[in-house]
Specification:
Elements: E1 37-42, H1 57-65, E2 75-77, E3 82-84, E4 90-95, H2 103-119, E5 123-128, H3 134-139, E6 147-152, H4 172-177, E7 182-188, H5 198-206, E8 209-212, H6 214-226, E9 234-240, H7 262-275, E10 277-284, H8 295-318
Parallel strand pairs: 1-4, 1-5, 5-10, 6-7, 6-9, 7-8, 9-10
Antiparallel strand pairs: 2-3
Helix pairs in contact: 1-8, 6-7, 7-8
């Protein structure tokens, strides 16, 4: 792009105009979704067990994403001499409809939205909401497997059922493991109190999970971690923002100290994008009311946009569609 091209049209600063994800076009017709990526909000947080507020996550992440969508037509990495996102078309399809107090209807609406994105042939990016929204996202991939899940999280989320609750934010990985098209999981960042109990850990491992704590990841390094992840498969990436340390991600319902720093996660995800095809992404548990500086929402937007850059750069190198 020439320098003169930057002088044409509106300057369109981050605080100007409509607030969509990455200032991308809006598509309200879910039967006519066009692009490479579709962003959908899933503002559901009735699955939380402590602090609510993640229903405001999609709006806050959209707002934060405008910071990274100003003026350059992509993102240049001088470390790799690569221009990311330059030719990637993103569309914001709005939010799945939430029916307050009704988990089943709300989850069904999320599943419907993800199915529409998949039918359109775009990469679905779903932003919660609490982590229970992963369950309908995964269900939408029925008939599109096999898929290996990459999870970034402080918590295992492998509880089966407590007091009849099967679709709270402590259950999604257990529900995913029950799907025949899910061939295994790599669960990274699991740590400390409140994550899960011994039996759930053992059951997750028996179901095909590789479980690594933050300290495991640091000990192994990126290359060591990647040796434990299947190659040349389809990946679904699910990110709970509490996988990051609360020093950089305080705005979440269940913060857990001892978490990842930014590049610890991004270097793994960059290699994941090169090691196989990423077919779906969700990011959950951003609760902006607990973060007055918006650090967490900014982190989430930065993670998503850089991850999308990695995914489509890797696809271009492989000539994937």
């Amino acid at each position: 792009m020439s320098e003169n091209a930057y002088e044409k049209g509106r300057l369109n600063l981050p605080f100007v105009g409509f607030c969509t994800f990455a200032k991308s076009p809006i598509c309200e017709d879910w039967d006519n979704i066009k692009g490479d990526v579709a962003f959908m909000g899933a503002p559901f947080d009735c699955g939380t067990q402590w602090r609510s507020g993640a229903r405001m996550g999609p709006r806050s992440i959209r707002e934060a994403s405008t910071l990274f969508s100003f003026g350059h037509g992509g993102a240049y990495s001088y470390e790799e001499d690569t221009m990311y996102l330059q030719d990637v078309s993103i569309v914001d399809i709005g939010d799945a409809d939430m029916v307050h107090t009704d988990t089943e209807k709300s989850h069904n609406n999320i599943e419907y939205g993800v199915r529409k994105m998949l039918d359109a042939g775009v990469l679905p990016v779903t932003v919660g909401g609490d982590h229970s929204v992963n369950a309908p996202c995964i269900r939408a991939f029925e008939g599109r497997g096999p898929i290996h899940i990459i999870q970034i999280d402080a918590h295992l989320d492998f509880v089966d059922e407590r007091h009849g609750v099967r679709f709270g934010h402590g259950n999604p990985m257990r529900r995913a493991s029950e799907q025949e098209f899910i061939t295994g999981m790599t669960q990274l960042g699991i740590r400390n109190v409140s994550s899960s109990n011994r039996s759930d850990h053992k059951l997750a491992e028996e179901a095909g999970s590789t479980i690594l704590s933050v300290r495991d990841v640091r000990r192994l390094g990126v290359e060591g971690v990647m040796k434990l992840i299947p190659k040349d498969v389809n990946y679904y990436i699910t990110i709970d923002i509490d996988g990051f340390d609360p020093s950089i991600a305080p705005g979440t319902g269940t913060p857990s100290h001892g978490g990842f720093q930014y590049y610890e996660v991004m270097e793994v995800l960059q290699q994941v994008a090169h090691q196989g095809k990423v077919v779906g992404i969700d990011l959950c548990e951003v609760a902006p009311d607990y973060d007055q500086s918006s650090t967490t929402s900014i982190l989430a937007a930065q993670v998503l946009l850089n991850l999308l850059g990695y995914v489509f750069h890797a696809r271009s190198l492989r000539n994937d569609k």
